Automatic annotation (TrEMBL):
UniProt keywords, alphabetically: Cell membrane, Membrane, Transmembrane, Transmembrane helix
Gene Ontology CC: one annotated term: plasma membrane
InterPro entries found in the cross-reference section: Surf1/Shy1, Surf1/Surf4
Chief location: membrane
Compartments where found: Cell membrane; Membrane
Protein name as catalogued: SURF1-like protein
Organism phylogeny: Bacteria, Pseudomonadati, Pseudomonadota, Alphaproteobacteria, Rhodobacterales
């Protein structure tokens, strides 16, 4: 009886832990979907003027409307776009009536890196963003070749003479530049995978517990 009881308690305890982890991830999934929905709503809201001294937290993804002049000078950030391949993000200075901002104009292919692009007066629709792309493995930029590996708002604005405020263009700023607007695709949401994993493990654990319980009882009957 002792071995049967131990197997039963051990099996139920493990099952309870795995089910509770699955339920926790299910709650996290609901929470994350709500966060992503809020971000999507913020991204697609009506554009406003860029506030003076925008906040990286409360103004992240804020849709903005710019009227001003695209200036000369660019920084080329090496990226890869799905189903397209490698190329560069084009970062350039843009001056409005109140401030000089950094604009991510979008994507060009490798061979178009140094192709002249439209400058001068224009209107831009985009979103404020503070990308987090720097870690210990990020290579230093090749300044001579003007090849960068991240949109570093601590360095790039000083190079181009702008404020550390980045607007990612949604509208076209040049016929040969493809905008890469802000979206939620880069925000990880693996909670559904974790839900399936924990509940799958719970199912396997339940099956194994039933099997060991049957084996324990069968061994006990054989001893009797």
């Amino acid at each position: 009886m002792g071995r049967v009881l131990f197997t039963l308690i051990f099996g139920l305890t493990g099952l309870a832990i795995l089910v509770s982890l699955g339920m926790w991830q299910l709650q996290r999934l609901t929470w994350k979907e709500g966060v992503l929905a809020d971000i999507e709503a913020r991204i697609s809201a009506d554009p406003v003027s860029v506030p003076l001294g925008p906040d990286p937290i409360s103004d992240r993804y804020l849709p903005v409307h710019l009227t001003g002049e695209m200036l000369e000078g660019e920084v080329h950030v090496l990226v890869s776009v799905k189903q397209v391949g490698p190329g560069y993000r084009i970062l350039a200075p843009f001056v409005t009536q109140d401030q000089t901002l950094l604009v991510d104009r979008g994507f060009v292919a490798l061979e178009d890196k140094d192709t002249p692009r439209q400058i001068g007066e224009m209107e831009i629709i985009g979103n404020l963003h503070w990308p987090d792309e720097i870690d210990e493995y990020t290579p230093d930029p090749d300044i001579d070749a003007n090849i960068w590996f991240a949109r570093d708002l601590n360095v790039v604005p000083a190079v181009l003479g702008t404020e550390p405020i980045l607007v990612i263009a949604k509208s076209k700023t040049d016929p040969n530049v493809t905008p890469l607007p802000v979206d939620t695709n880069g925000i990880p949401n693996d909670h559904l995978q974790y839900v399936v994993t924990w509940f799958g493990l719970a199912l396997v654990w339940a099956g194994m517990s039933v099997y060991f319980l049957w084996r324990t009882r069968a061994a006990k009957r054989a001893e009797s």
